[in-house]
Write a structure and sequence with these properties.
The structure is a single chain. 3% of the residues lie in helices and 48% in strands. The chain contains two helices and 35 strands. The strands form nine sheets. Strands 3-35-34-33 form a four-stranded antiparallel β-sheet, with no helix packed on it. Strands 4-5-6-7 form a four-stranded antiparallel β-sheet, with no helix packed on it. The N terminus is likely disordered.
Length: 380
């Protein structure tokens, strides 16, 4: 059984029956993970200092930290949601969704939205719950809060919009669900006046006013002979520079799309489930074996590849200035060069795995660990 080349897979759901196939995946990919090679001594090329630290409960769900201006909003598995001023590490507010979370956080710097394991969309403002809305299916992608509206994509491929103040549903667009969907964050963002979402292996541009489709761009097409092999969901963070939006299709491809015209710019084979980062020159991603790869944004040709972090279960990267920041399962935070992946610095955070893709706000790299440590680091 291929099962995406026997690489570790995210749990999946069989739509309609809502049957979790974790056991089947584990049985077919039971080979132990290769031991990562010993890292060389840390030679500090780039100075990095810890600026602040905030504590939240344990993070045991696929957290997507949100940045809006200088504000970073994070959440823990038990439903705690915290908004932090990245300049000082001061908590702007802290609240509870009242139940464990499966998706979050979406925020515009004022309102914040999460989804609980009871399939409730919970919207907060200033540390108080504004409203709750029952959803028809599980959700693993953080809601998008934009223009005083809240957009949600559920695991059954339905995309819906809600009024941010009242919770009134404005519209819903339902796609034919795939046989299986990933229990992993997908793609949901706004580019100008277009709502972008992932549907299978396609990036879809929608009218945020009514949910109608404006264009579809295929980053990957289903392949294989069974439902698991044919999974091509778009997963994780995207790299956006202007109208160029680059995304990853689960264990299949990386591709870039013109978000105005809806045209596919390029698509290249890539093997991972983690998202992307980048700048005007490069699109950067971590592969399932721990290789770090940079593709040229203009044409998708590979610019460089580094195997220095092989088999370390890496997060998606963050490109910030001349550095790329990556976390691993042992709790190390790696700063490497965006030019060739050469090491710049390495930090031990709190000893637990890095639980979310690092983000940057107010010139501060914000990292969240499995044990609930939220750290702000500033490169010097």
């Amino acid at each position: 059984m291929n099962l995406k080349r026997l690489l570790p897979a995210a749990p999946v759901l069989r739509t309609g029956l809502a049957m979790v196939l974790v056991a089947a995946l584990a049985a077919c990919s039971s080979t132990s993970k290769p031991k990562p090679p010993e890292l060389p001594a840390n030679v500090v090329v780039l100075g990095v200092r810890q600026a602040w630290n905030v504590k939240i409960p344990q993070v045991a769900f696929p957290l997507q930290s949100n940045v809006s201006g200088d504000m970073v909003t994070v959440a823990s598995a038990d439903g705690t949601v915290v908004a932090i001023d990245a300049r000082t590490g001061t908590e702007a507010w802290r609240a509870s969704a009242g139940a464990p979370l499966t998706a979050g956080v979406g925020s515009d710097g004022s309102m914040a939205a999460v989804v609980t394991n009871k399939n409730e969309l919970v919207v907060m403002e200033g540390g108080k719950i504004l409203w709750r809305e029952q959803l028809a299916a599980e959700t693993y992608t953080a809601p998008l809060v934009a223009g005083r509206r809240v957009f949600v994509q559920t695991a059954d491929r339905a995309t819906s919009a809600y009024d941010g103040g009242s919770g009134r549903r404005l519209w819903i667009q339902q796609r034919t669900p795939e046989a299986l969907v990933l229990k992993k964050p997908g793609v949901l963002l706004a580019v100008g006046d277009t709502l972008l979402t992932g549907v299978g292996g396609r990036l879809v541009g929608m009218n945020p006013g009514n949910g109608s489709s404006r264009w579809e761009a295929p980053i990957a097409a289903p392949r294989g002979t069974n439902d698991v092999e044919r999974l091509v969901d778009l997963t994780g963070s995207v790299s956006r520079v202007g109208d160029s939006v680059c995304a990853r299709a689960y264990y299949t491809n990386v591709g870039c799309v013109d978000a105005v015209r809806g045209g596919l710019l390029w698509s290249k084979p890539a093997v991972s489930a983690e998202g992307l980062s980048g700048d005007g020159q490069f699109v950067v991603g971590t592969e399932s074996d721990g290789n770090l790869v940079a593709w040229r944004r203009a044409d998708g040709e590979r610019a460089w590849q580094s195997d220095r972090l092989k088999h370390r279960d890496l997060t998606a990267p963050l490109v910030v200035g001349r550095s790329i920041v990556i976390g691993d399962r042992t709790g190390l935070l790696h700063f490497v060069s965006r030019e060739d992946g050469a090491p710049l610095n390495r930090l031990t955070v709190d000893g637990s795995a890095i639980a979310a893709t690092p983000v940057v706000a107010a010139n501060t790299v914000v990292v969240v660990t499995r044990n609930g440590g939220v750290f702000g680091f500033r490169p010097e």
